[in-house]
Each structure stands twice: as C-alpha cells, then as structure tokens.
Amino acid sequence: MSKFEFPKSIASRPVWGTLEVRQGEHHLMIAEAEGAEAILAIATPDLMAKTHLIYIPKGTDYVERLRALNPAQFYEGPSYEASLQRIRRVLEDAHMGLQVYLTGSEGMMGQAMNEVMAVGLPHTAIQTEHRGSVARRMQCVHCKGITEDVEIDPYVCAHCGLNLFVRDHYSRRLAAYQGVRVDAEDHGNVPEPKGIYE
Amino acid sequence: MTIQFNDESFRDDYTFHNSDWAIKRFPFPFHEDSYMYSVNMEQHRGGPEGSVYEMRFDVDEHYVSEMKDRAMVLDQDPLRCQSLPHMTLAGWDLLELIMVSKSEDYPDLFELHRNGNQWRWINKPLGIDHSFTFMDETTLPYGPMEYITRQAQGDFAVLDQRDEMLWMDAGMVTTQADWSLDFDIGMNFFEWHAPVPKAHEMGIFQRALKFLLNIQQGAPARRLNWTMTVNPLLDTSPENYHKWGIQKTTLTPENIAHKQHLRVELQTFFRLPRSNALVFPIRCYLCSFQDLMTVPKWGRRLHRVIRDLPEELATYKGFIDNRPMMLDYLSRFDDGLPTSPGIWPDLETEPPLAK
Questions:
Q1: Complex confidence, ipTM
Q2: Are residues A111 and A148 in the same domain?
Q3: Within 13 Å and on the Cβ side, how many CA atoms surround B127?
Q4: Whether pLDDT at B40 is above 90
Q5: What is the mean pLDDT of residues B317-336?
Q6: Average pLDDT over residues A85-95
Q7: Which chain B positions have a beta carbon within 8 Å of A172's beta carbon?
Q8: Please, are residues B132 and B141 in contact by the beta-carbon 8 Å criterion?
Q9: Is A65 part of any domain?
Q10: pLDDT tops 80 at residue A2
Q11: What are the helix (H) ranges across B33-87?
Q12: CB–CB of B242 and A185 under 8 A?
C-alpha cells in the first residue's frame, strides 16, 4: 500500500518521517494497523532480536507476519487505550539509548510520543512513519472532549454534539487537532460533510 | 490624575463605555492610510503624557470592571489560566515586575512595602491589602502569576526561552482575539502563530522571533495589533465562540455606530530577571465606531484602511461579511482630505470633516 502524501500545511501541523534502522541495544516499536508494513519494511533478524513490538491490528491481518519476525517480545493489543498501561510499564524501564519506532495513524503516534517524552527520552530517539488511516484525533475547543478517528469535515463532537470544523492547528501536548463550531455565525447552516482531504 | 473607574459590563447588557479622556488616548493602530503586517516594534520607554504608552502597565477607567469580568471568566473556565510546572519562577518575576511598576507609576493607587522577603501589597481600586512572603507560594491564594494577573488588565503570555526559541508555557488569557491558551500551551513561537495567514511567507515571524530573543532586562518593547469586535465583548475566546459568534450577525446600518468596535492590542515584551522568561502582556482596548468618528483624522483613515485591506486579512480578522456595511458607515466620515502621519488624533491641527 502506498503512503499518503499529506498536503502542505501550517507550521503547527506535524510532519511524519520514514522509519530506518538505528543502532542500539534496545528497541521499542509501537505499530497500529497498516503500520505493520513500515515494520516489515525495516525488520532484520538482528534488529528484531532486540525489539519489543507492540501491535494494535484494528481489524487488519498482519499479526502472523509480524510474529514471524521473531521479535524479542511481542504483544497484540485490542486498542491503543488497552495497550497504554503496558506501554507505560515498558517505558518505566527505558534506558537512555532506547530507540522508539512509532507507525500508524496520527492520533496513535501523537499520543505515544507524549508517553515517550514524559519519561524523559529525547525526541531524537523517536522515529515516526504515518501509515494507514488519515483520520484525525480531534479536540472540541468548546467542551474539550476528544473525538477519535475523525474522517470527515465537519464532524459531530462525540461529547457535546456540536458540528465542528476540522482545523489544521495541532497541539502536540493534546496529540489532537482543533475542532471549532462550523455554524457559530449561522446556527443550523452546516455544510455537507466530506472527507478531510477531499 | 485620579482615575474615575467605570461601573460597566463587557457582556449581556454591554454597559461598557469610553469617556472623552479614554477616546482621546485610544491607541489608534494605523499610522498611515493603509495597513499590512509588519514587525513594527519599538522600545517601550514611556510616551506622551496621558497616553497608553506612558506607563509600563497602563491603568485606565476600565480597570475595576475588567478585573470583575476576568474573575467571571475564570469561575466558568479555570483552564484560561495555566502554568506548566517549570514556570513558577517566571510567575514570581512577573508578580514583582507588575507590583514594582504599578506602585512606582501610580503611587496613589498601589503601594508595595518590602522588607526582605516580607512584602505588603496594597491595591486600592480593588480593595486589597495583603502581606505575603515573596517566593513562598503558600502565602498567596493563587499561584504568583494568577494572583497578580487577576489584578492587571490585559492577557499575559509567559514565554520560556530555550534552544533559541520561545515557548508558550504559561498564561492568563481571558480577553483574547480568538486563540486558546489551553490548546496552544507548550507550543513554540511558530506553532502558536501557525494559523495566521500570509505573515509566515513574508518572514514576519522569523524576524519577530529574532528581535524577541534579544530583548534585554530593563529594555522592554511594544507594538500594536488590531481586529474588529461586534459589541464590547472582552471574552472573544474560541472556547465560547459557539455562543458569541452569532453576535456578528446582529449588526445593522442602524446599530453599527455603537455596536461595532475597533479592538486594539497594546502588546509589550519584558525580559524577566530570574527565569530569563519573556512576558508578553496583550492589553485590549475597545472603541466604538461612533466614538472613533469624533476624531476627524481617524474617521478619514479608518475608512481607507478597511476599504483597502486585502480580503485574506479581513477574513482572518473575522469581519469579511460585515465589511460592506462598515464601509457604508465609515465613508460618511471620509471627505478625501489628506491625513497627518502617525497615530495621534491631532485634533488641533487636522481640519474638521468637510462633508
């Protein structure tokens, strides 16, 4: 599957990279759905023998191919939220020099990046590669509620029910884009939703 | 002079008003008959007597009512004031800067008595007489930044400086022109300005950052910025935009004179001594169109600026839909005569409206 080219945008919008093998004794990979392809693309027996791989399939069928890479540790989680306690436990033991690889949706990478930074690892130890869904994790600026996996613009806030315009303005601290009421100046006049990149 | 503080509201019944004194000293932001972005920084070392530039932190007739409005906003949404853990020292720096400046600049309104770390702060307009220990948070009812900015007009962004960059790591933001501290906290200078159109391409932010990184202690700087607000609403936050946005559609040719306000920000920048942080007070001044039109020069100029403003800027500033109605009104105050350079009203030298 080819990678999605995000259109050029404003300075707060994150820019994702391409994973590459780094030197190091310890490697942590967190991959979601089609992110498996980015792992398969760089995996070598030597690298995987030093890797803890946390994988969240989200309905895809890459698990067996990942397991066949023989990672030192392999965990399949049903969702990012369910995997979070484990991710935190692993990061608790992280030593300087740990190399982190994040790949999948923007929402997952953004949240996982915050976990890694929170334990004091430098941002230079983190690599990212976007794969799969282009859905966004959105914060409603009005009620502050987060809506996951938003694919359309405008969308309905899962918490307060307002119709929200999807902005490109992004907060790394929240790992979310900003949603703002689309019909604030003309109540009820909500444009027909379309794909965010359509 | 003694200031008569207004009893007024910035919401609901909107009893906000400017006295003749406040109109004459309004910081009209256009120094010529057109407007484009620029860094437009100058030293903040006083200004003409009675002007908003004269003191380090200007106090005017709206002080007491603005502080009441701020308290209301914070009751409803405490996220408008936030400080990341490493910014507490900068909060003390800011408290000191404001207390020292106000007590020196307005000795009849504010007093600061210091005996080592034992400080006594008297704020007469707000009825505060408080003794506390400097640098001991347990002796204040709020964190130091929140404590002092509940007593100072304007928003405050407190910027940490590291890696040749400024970071929005603390702030008190209740009178903002549509940006969210809660969303932007922790961002760097380019990130929090990301939504501003055009200015990035023009290199404005690169130059501004370079200037700001080099601001030294005791040498503050300032600039003016502006936008438009329907009704004298201080809290034009994105948080409440779903409530106030609709007010923009209540403008009519009959009410535009008193309902449409020019909103000007006096932005100042001070280096803080212990933390090396930069504090960025953003002071908001509002003036209705009808009050602005009492100054002939401003009437002529505002019409020309609004008429010729690029569409992208009028959209970003949120008044593109109302611009035709504004121009219908403003054109009545433009007789085509030339205007004198600079922002000052020049009431004695500029001719009256010849129309």
A1: 0.90
A2: no
A3: 3
A4: no
A5: 97
A6: 94
A7: 186-187, 191
A8: no
A9: yes
A10: no
A11: 63-76
A12: no
